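Take a specimen:
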Amino acid sequence: MPAVSNRPSASSQWDDICFPVKAVPFTDILPDYEIAATDRQQLIIGEPSGRMPIVYAAQSNEYSIIPNSLLRQVVDRLISDYILDVRFTANGEFAINIVTQGERFQIGKQTDTLTRSLVFNNSYNGKMPFKVQGTVVNTTTVEHYQEARMRISYYRQVCSNSLMGWSDEFMNLDEYLNWLLKGKPKKYKEAKEIKTSFQAAYTYQHLKGQQQEQTLSRKFHHKGLDLDLFEQYLEQVVAQFLKQDTGLTLDIYKKMAKQQVDKQHAEQLLIDAKLPKMLARQAMTRMGEEERLLESEPNVWLLYNAINYTLFTAQANMSINDRFRQDEAVYHDLAQLVLTSN
């Protein structure tokens, strides 16, 4: 089913996304009916302030609601000074950006600065998996959390947009470029499917040096989470974010800022990125606005930000998850351009 056309709303207040949400069994709503359906047995209902209750989805009894209020509690407990920037849709999808106050990073012009941020993706409709910095979280992630390098996101002051650290999982430029030139193969490509009595699962094996790591990752959205364990997991993630250094993505941004691009080339890059024509036109307009605002020559950095800004502000038949996927694809394509240009 295609996504409903929508324009993400923006807010800097937790109260706009922290409201009661609950699972209500069909038997409570239809007590005089025999419920034959066994796959979806409850409704996920939210109660935003000043609005009628909203039915976000019909889900199975295994579905786990992750309330935004839980994220708020963890963030408030561990981060003393931050700015909240949220993008959300009426059908219950949320991109929650926690912008920390501290070191600023200059990209290109002196007035073009970034600060570190932590991004949570959540949903009440079950169509978007819960993610931290673009990485899916499930029961295995929570129960077997091991501290590893995580992505660092950035908040750009010029247009108040959030940029995901899409390259940060790579240790160096050579490793990242090699992955790009191989066609961006999926990690753990040799995954073997395992059938279990509970559900399909996948074992991923990744050989690094002499050590072999195995991770069992179940394919599901919001199912079977123990919220007490989940809260502990979130605390570990936030603590790790606060102490981790910046990653490779920041270096890619700087290279993008040095790579000039004329209008004709920029338009062709938008075509290659398969951005819808309406969004492509809006991105070109936004790029021109930033050139004037920053008194800058057109470059790949401004083009990428224009696309990112358009993706998360424009009316389109795209879910928030779709917008992040498009942003990631565009980022890698533009990164390959600047890394392979003479």
Notes: Residues 19-62 form one domain. Residues 320-340 form the longest helix (21 residues). Residues 263 and 298 are 8 Å apart (CA to CA). The two ends are 43 Å apart (CA to CA).
